Amino acid sequence: MPTAQSNGSQGTHFFPIVHSLKNYTRRDFDGDIFAGIITAILLVPQSIAYAILAGLPPQMGLYASILPTACYALLGTSRTLSVGPVSIAAIMIASALATPEISALGDSVQSALILAAESGIIMLMMAMLRMGGLVNFISHPVLAGFTSGAALLIIASQLPQLAGLKPPSCGFNIACYQHYLQGYNAATLAIAIAALNILIFFGKPLSSLLKKLKLPLTMVTGISKCGPLLTVFLATLAATYFGLQAQHGVSLVGEVPSGFPSLRLDFIDITKWKILLPSATFIALIAYVESVAIAKVTANLRGEKIAPNQELIALGAANLVTAISGGMAVAGGFSRTMVNFSAGARTQMAMLIAAAILSVSVIFFSAWFANIPKAALAAIIIMAVFRLVRIRHIFHTFNYDRGDGFAELVTLLGVLVLGIEKGITLGIILTLASQLRKTSHPHIAVVGRIPKTEHYRNIKRHAVETWHHLLLVRIDESLTFANISYVEDYLADELNRQPNIKHVVLIFTSVSDIDTTALEALEKINQSLQVSGKTLNISEAKGPVLDKLRKTDFLEQLKPGKAFFRTEDAAKELG
Question: What is the pLDDT at residue 123?
């Protein structure tokens, strides 16, 4: 019996779906099958669209939505996260494949498979090193700036597709653009305009109309999310019936192979792997951070928990599987996840059902995908990523914290001007620099006692009692090599401003640690004060801080200064 329990718990740990299905009910199945169908409907056009956005054959998007999706459903801790091709990963793949050193390698398909495989391996290595907490090292402002910048790049890359134009190469030549725009394709533009109108209508207008009819929320979600599929269906019907490619030059997806690809490992090439490693690292990092952030949104709504390290395993395995099965790199998609959640998904079974439905479509209906106009897919991509552009968020962030706001703005501009990898690197560096600056300039306050209480507050914010010969200073940060010089300068300025001070009390309420450099500086401060006939005292030091200080002779050096348990005790004795 103990062995069985142990094996069961291990199965639940490595395969969280086992725990989800322990008390599976008919109601859960009904919710999962409906959500699976709706998510599959959204997956088909998005998978093809994001593969084309990445500059890859459309089938690579479809393949990335079957086995990788099922793999994550088995290993992931989120019950509703929809893993597959996503816009951000697609533009990062396109950006990587467009760099001269990578494009010179030739065979973009093989390079894309290597990017997926390396991303998966990197995530699995991070899981082995228990680096699930790495998600906390990219601040939300940097991630928001990166997302907005990447979304703008995606929109810019798809706008020419709406009019049947090739990517422009005019630079800042306005006259060149006037000539460039004259080459638009009227039939392509008409399809794009019709597609955009359908997609817009299937957004808030249709949802509001259906809600007024008092339909169930799951039905409202299901109907309103059929917009992309209906758009593709109508555009394909028009292209086929009117022969738009032959007669009007409308660009179509082209032949999509039917059936599953053969599983293979022939993309292994050490030389290419070395060159692609930096790009794969960025794709892995962003895919993980975005996926966990999305998973947490729906998990919090249901009071569920996400295990970051297990997510690394699930996403890493999914990316390895997508490479072996001929797909592009995958991550959690926000729109599909929210659709899956809103449609009533109860467990990971919903995504297994979606993967099964997509498998059927790839086997039996892939021939239908050949006549999909690329303009319709471009419209779907633009509508999907448009909401990711959050320029107003920069102003909100800047009003709250200038450092974070500046980092968000610079990340956005960096992505647009320097490229995706350099842009986000710049944002991370700025965030770390801002954090270091905050740490090196801790908040320090001279405090006094609020009358008739034992509470001590900042003299600049409150009406408090002070003493002519007693200086109470509260330091709101741990003391380290990075900030101790700032503390020294602050104390020196205060003592110059108040020459009558006889006793200095450092209040350590917020001090969790004192490193060696800071301790040596405190010893020098104490010696300097003693030479000038003053005493240095500390109060309200935490247990771990006192434990470290007792390992030295600092408390002995303080004498006649003391370490007070409460600031009130110091004020009564020294005031």
Answer: 96
